[in-house]
Amino acid sequence: MTVRRIGIMGGTFDPIHNGHLVCAEEARHQFELDEVIFVPAGNPWQKSGVSYAEDRYLLTVLATASNQRFSVSRIEIDRAGPTYTHDTLRILGDFYAGSALLFFISGADAVAEILSWKDPQSVLDQAHFIAASRPTYELGPRLLESFGDRVSVMEIPALAISSTGIRQRVSSGRPVRYLVPREVDHYIAANGMYLD
Ligand code: NAP
Q: What are the backbone dihedrals phi and psi of residue 40, each rounded to the nearest 5 degrees, phi first?
């Protein structure tokens, strides 16, 4: 049986931007992944004021449509209640039933918080974690010590782009063209997102 290598790109994606896409593609290359599944968080319970899940889902579909190795899952959008990565990885693990190795890709700051997530040990057992780091972000030694070989760090220069920065630019009337895919720029404008 061929064991597939599947990347799970977890994030709030409010909105998705070119840094996320560069990150997913670099992880696919570095870790020899067969595909990357983007999983927009349905109800990121540790945050408030997040945009509608359907908007974030559609933006993610628009941004990834041109890459055959990328797809988007509604697994967290359609699940009621707070979004726990533990549940997502368990469901995906059951689905692949031993025929895939899972690699969870997310921001280094998010991965650094795993110990505050639900069932952190189980989360770390279910996937290898790829922590995407911005050039200025110093990953604390605590993270490396506590997670051992379950976490790999990957520096992504394009991650200088941030969702927070995109929202701020839109709300103050500045362009986000070339920071996000063109379709994402159009969707944000057409739906009046991030205008406070
Ligand atoms: P976040 O706190 O918004 O993100 C932290 C940092 O990581 C931000 O700088 C963010 O940049 C960046 N980032 C987030 N996702 C990324 C990705 N896929 N690739 C590269 N950079 C990324 O994190 P979040 O988006 O809420 O959560 C990230 C993932 O962790 C989600 O899948 C979420 O469900 C999971 N999570 C799980 C639990 C739990 O199970 N209890 C708790 C918290 C988070 P941008 O703002 O530019 O994206």
A: -65, 135
Cβ–ligand 1 contact at 85 (below 6 Å): yes
pLDDT tens-digit profile of 75-131?
999 998 888 999 999 999 999 998 999 999 999 888 888 878 888 889 999 999 999
Looking at the predicted structure, is the pLDDT value of residue 172 above 70? yes
32, two tokens: 């020899």
Give the distance, in angstroms, between the CA of residue 106 and the centroid of all CA atoms in the same chain: 5
Q: Is 62 in the pocket of ligand 1 (CB under 6 A)?
A: no
Among residues 1, 5, 2, 4, the alpha carbon closest in space to that of 105 is found at 5
Q: Please tell me if the CB atom of residue 164 comes closer than 6 angstroms to any atom of ligand 1.
A: yes
Q: In terms of pTM, does the model score above 0.85?
A: yes
Q: What is the DSSP letter of 40?
A: E
